[in-house]
Structure formats: structure tokens, C-alpha cells
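Researcher: I've got a protein sequence and the SMILES for zinc ion. Could you write out the 3D structure of the bound complex as C-alpha cells? I'd like something to compare against our soaking experiments later this week.
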Amino acid sequence: MQISNRIKSKGLQKLRFFCQMCQKQCRDENGFKCHLNSESHKRQMEIFGQNADRVIAGYSEEFEADFMELMRRSHPRARVAAKNVYNEFIADKYHVHMNSTKWYTLTEFVKYLGKTGKEHTPSPQAKYAFPVLCC
Ligand SMILES: [Zn+2]
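Model: Sure. Here is the predicted complex with zinc ion in place.
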């Protein structure tokens, strides 16, 4: 799904208690615990267990693509801190959760971008590239 479509459906629902595996948002901690014990979640976990590497690689790719797209779109001319982009990123209720990616934390993701030189990807209209400066 394109992030622009997702942003239209952006809700104010709290993002805690979200099960990435099942793409399920639970209302509260209790609901989340219930969900973790449900048959459908256990089935998902089994599938995940057999394909963990592939599943994480998929989430990582999606996370990176969405994150970079948001950065290009929202901050085409600015130098911007990763934390600021991330805060906008997680406002989208369908965002890929950081802890489902191979980086696990924003710091690791930024390190990865730095290592691969991707934080300097310029947009066509940008005066200068927009490095992700810090977390
Ligand atoms: Zn689940």
C-alpha cells in the first residue's frame, strides 16, 4: 500500500498494543494479552517461526522504502533528524514497527543508512541532500 493512501486513513488510535505479525491493533493491554493467546496469533507465530528471516527481511525492506519516501516527501530541502522523521512515520497507524525490522532500533537503522550512504539520497528538487543527522 502506498503511504499516501495510508495517511488518508490515519487515525488517532494509540499505537501501543499492536501486533505486527497479525496486523492487529488491540484496544488495551488486556486485549493484547488475549490476542497473544489466541489461536490465530499462534498460527501466525508458527508461520513466522518457519520463515523468520524472510519475514524480517520483508518488514525491513518495507520500513526502509516507506521511511525514505516520507523523508523525500516531507523534507525535500531540509536537513532533518531521523527522530523527527520517525515521529511522523509512526503517526501513520499502518506503519511498519521498528521492532519488526532487522535493525530493531532507530539508532541501528541510522547507522545502516550511514554505512550504505543512503542518508544522502538527494531528491531532484533538493538544493542539497538531506542527511539524517542523528537520533
Ligand atoms: Zn498477533
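Model: The pocket of zinc ion is lined by residues 19, 21-22, 24, 35, 41, 44 (CB under 6 Å). Confidence is low (pLDDT under 50) at residues 1-14, 122-135.
Researcher: Great, I'll pass this along to the crystallography team.
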